[in-house]
Amino acid sequence: MEKKLQKQDTALRTQLELALGEQLNALISASHALNVRTAALFDPQLQPAAFLIVRWLLSYGPAAATLLAESTAMDRSSVSRLVSQLKQLGYVKSETHPEDRRGILISLTETGREKALYAIKIKEEEFYKHISKLDNSELETFITLLQCFNGHESNNDITD
């Protein structure tokens, strides 16, 4: 009898893990599609990878091409090509590093910053359409579960 229960538990666990995999795949796919649409809102002429660079610069500020490549998981030649396109379109600029006169920092122009913020605002509206369906308790549970799944378990209450 106990072996039968263990088999049922194992079968249920397998089904649950497959269902979780399906939902995570759906989330990742939807997130990727939303990122591609957001990049097109920023500038339809550019590849979505260029918008990754723009987003990184918006979040973290000026950076060397090497850091951009490492942080976005792109090779240096791709970053260089994309940065050149972004420069030609007036979205980024290069300046001499203030602390290391041999280094070059890449940063957003005001136009790049404004267009990025606009595209992100539209993306956020799509995101909020989904979470607005959850009440506060459900949202708190969802956040806690995601923190646990992502390995960021926290003893802190979310509402603190």
TrEMBL record:
SMART domains assigned to the protein according to its UniProt record, in alphabetical order: HTH_MARR
Check the record and name the SUPFAM superfamilies matching this protein.
Winged helix' DNA-binding domain
Q: Which Pfam families match?
A: MarR_2 (PF12802)
Q: Which InterPro entries match?
A: HTH_MarR-typ (IPR000835), MarR/SlyA-like (IPR039422), WH-like_DNA-bd_sf (IPR036388), WH_DNA-bd_sf (IPR036390)
Where is each HTH marR-type domain found? Answer: 1-151
Question: Please, which domain of life does this record's source organism belong to?
Answer: Bacteria
- From what organism does this protein derive? Anaerocolumna chitinilytica
A Gene Ontology molecular function term of the record: DNA-binding transcription factor activity
| Single Gene Ontology BP annotation | response to stress
Under Gene3D superfamilies, the record lists: Winged helix-like DNA-binding domain superfamily/Winged helix DNA-binding domain
Name of the molecule in the record: MarR family transcriptional regulator
Q: Which residues form the signal peptide?
A: none
